[in-house]
Amino acid sequence: MKTARRNFIKGLCFSAGSLLTKGCANALEHEGESGAPGPAYARLEARGDLVERIAQAYKKLEKCDLCPHRCGANRLDGEKGFCSAPGRAVVYSHSPHFGEELPLVGRGGSGTIFFSNCNLRCVFCQNWPIAHLGRGREVDDESLADMMLNLQRRGCHNINLVTPTHVMPHILSAMRIALKKGLNLPLCYNTGGYETVENIRLLDGIVDIYLPDLKFMGREESARYVVQGVGDYPEMAQQAIVEMHRQVGELVVDDRGIARRGLMVRHLVMPNHVAGTREFVDWVARNLSRDTYVNIMPQYRVEHMAFDYEEIARAITSREYVEAMEWAKKAGLRNLDKRSLSHLEIHRRRAS
Ligand code: SF4
User: Fold this and answer.
1) Around Cβ 16, how many Cβ atoms within 10 Å?
2) What is the pLDDT of residues 19-56, one digit of tens each?
3) Considering the domain 86-268 in this protein, what is its CATH number?
4) If 0-12 CB within 10 Å is exposed, 13-18 middle and 19+ buried, where does residue 226 land?
5) Ligand 1 pocket: which of 58, 59, 65, 66 to mutate (most atoms <8 Å of CB)?
6) Residue 352: pLDDT band by 50, 70, 90 thresholds?
7) How many Cα neighbours within 13 Å face the side chain of 29?
8) What is the model's pLDDT at position 227?
9) Ligand 1 centre from 60 Cα, in Å?
10) Protein residue with its CA nearest to atom 6 in ligand 1
11) Beta-carbon neighbour count of residue 137 at 10 Å?
12) Which residue owns the Cα nearest ligand 1 atom 2?
């Protein structure tokens, strides 16, 4: 199997008219853990296409349209848009994380890099000092690459890029630097979902695992619970998720249950069902697949500005969570997150 894959990559390199470049050599070395195929970006590098992709992404920073806000700020010249992100990436932390979905965590943890600032900024944000206030440290792409390699050395199973949209060019550039130094982990694009399809297309063949939120299904709610109102969130997020699904399909795990590739969708149940959970599960069943990995999360808590919104200034009830999960089952979703199924049993007992 490994030999066939090596021959395939060699074929690609020679059919592109090149000798075996360093990128190709790296891709050949990059058989993943347990002999699974290496990460998507190593194959793109082997084809010689990664450099051009990074150039296209960086160009966007001159008149920023990395997300649907399309602010037009020249971030390379110090201008800032809605997200307040500067020209370089700002990182709050990088460490193995054991609280993510089980296929991302395994034994070694998910290698999370928390980026500061955010292009969405929900009023109930649980990471508001990082996302709203931008706490963190500016880093260049070489330092970001070192963080990725550090997470790999510490035994993480993936590089989990938290809130990546506004720093996507820096991530691609850093990932290529790290690739040349031996990075071979899958990239996990962990986004709030406010994306353009155009941006997601730039990631085709680079990202292995997409982990988007689909936070709201209604325009009114998305305008109300996002700073400065983003009424087009449902439409933008849904289009982007359909494109993610087209690129990577259903979740694929290795023989240890560790995620290698695919789409995992998150949805947070909110008080009074303001997130539109019933519509969410129906949408997934109709527009993606009933086998889509879906995590319906119960951990809403009142944070930051949410105290000012009476209808969301409380935790969810057990009954609300049970209803949400029953809607998911009724919609035919058959790849629900295991922890969410455990939460269902706990909340069912509490609700009865
Ligand atoms: S990434 Fe930031 S600056 Fe760029 S379009 Fe989005 S909000 Fe505006």
Assistant:
1) 13
2) 333 333 434 344 454 445 689 999 999 999 999 999 99
3) 3.20.20.70
4) buried
5) 66
6) confident
7) 14
8) 81
9) 10
10) 67
11) 11
12) 83
Which residue, judged by its Cα, is nearest atom 4 of ligand 1? 64
Q: Which atom of ligand 1 is closest in space to residue 117's alpha carbon?
A: 2
For residue 142, how far is its CA from the centre of ligand 1 (angstroms)? Answer: 23
Which amino acid makes up residue 335? Answer: N
Backbone angles phi, psi at 17, to 5 degrees: 80, 15
User: Is 163 in contact with 118 (CB distance < 8 Å)?
Assistant: yes
Residue 165 alpha carbon to ligand 1 centre in Å: 8
Dig out the tokens for 301 from the structure: 């808590």
Pocket mutation for ligand 1, best pick of 63, 69, 230 (most atoms within 8 Å of C-beta): 69
Residues in CB range of 28: below 8 A, 6 or more apart? 6, 9, 10, 46
Ramachandran quadrant class, 28 (left: phi over 0; alpha: psi -120 to 50; beta: rest): alpha
pTM: 0.90
Instruction: Look at residue 333 and tell me whether its pLDDT is greater than 60.
Output: yes
Per-residue pLDDT of 122-142, as tens digits, reads 999 998 999 998 899 999 999
pLDDT, residue 295, reads 98
Mind listing the pLDDT tens digit for each residue in 73-96? 999 999 999 999 999 999 999 999
Of ligand 1's atoms, which has the minimum distance to the CA of residue 73? 3
Q: How long, in residues, is the chain?
A: 352
Question: How much is the pLDDT for 248?
Answer: 98
Rounded Cα–Cα distance for residues 348 and 301 (Å):
19
Residues lining ligand 1, Cβ inside 6 A = 64-67, 69-71, 73, 81-83, 85, 119, 166
**CA nearest 265: which of 287, 60, 255, 80?**
287
CA of 207 to the centre of ligand 1 (A): 20
Mutate to test the pocket of ligand 1, among 58, 62, 64, 115 (most ligand atoms within 8 A of CB): 64
**Domain locations along the chain:** 86-268
- Answer for the pair 276, 268: CB distance below 8 angstroms, yes or no: no
